[in-house]
Amino acid sequence: MSVREIRLYGDPVLRSPCDPVTDLSKAGQLVQDLLDTTQVPGRAGVAANQIGVGLRVFSYNVNGEVGYLINPEIVELGGEEVLVEEGCLSVPGLWHKTPRYEQATARGLQLDGSTKEVSGTGLLAQALQHECDHLDGKVYIEKLLPDERKIAFRALREQSWFLKN
Length: 165
Prior knowledge:
Blueprint: H1 28-38, E1 45-47, E2 57-62, E3 65-88, E4 91-109, E5 115-121, H2 122-135, H3 146-157
Antiparallel strand pairs: 1-2, 2-3, 3-4, 4-5
């Protein structure tokens, strides 16, 4: 089991869009590390850049459904965009109302080259959107509505772990 350390907001790897995986045969260890890291209680998902790897891969663990997607893309969003309480392993201790669609479908590859679609509502829809945002170089606090964003960044600057540039 290889649980990897989570990079914290302020680390440049979190702000850089991830590169697509071009050789699936070399992605096995990354996928296993992501799955292991997501198995820690309280974690719904981990994107590769959160463990310092700039490749388009994430794992998820929501309501007993555990898996991963390589080169994922959101292919469908449904329902209303609603404000949901959201946190992030890379922004520990902060939770804010984040706009997310009620339903989401993501499509990506498996290690054997097959395509997999993952669809969900509630926490799974939120996790799919959250992890794809990470792979695009975006952290949830950057998606907040203006008033909530001001509160979030004020709270962020007060965190002892915050990497000051």
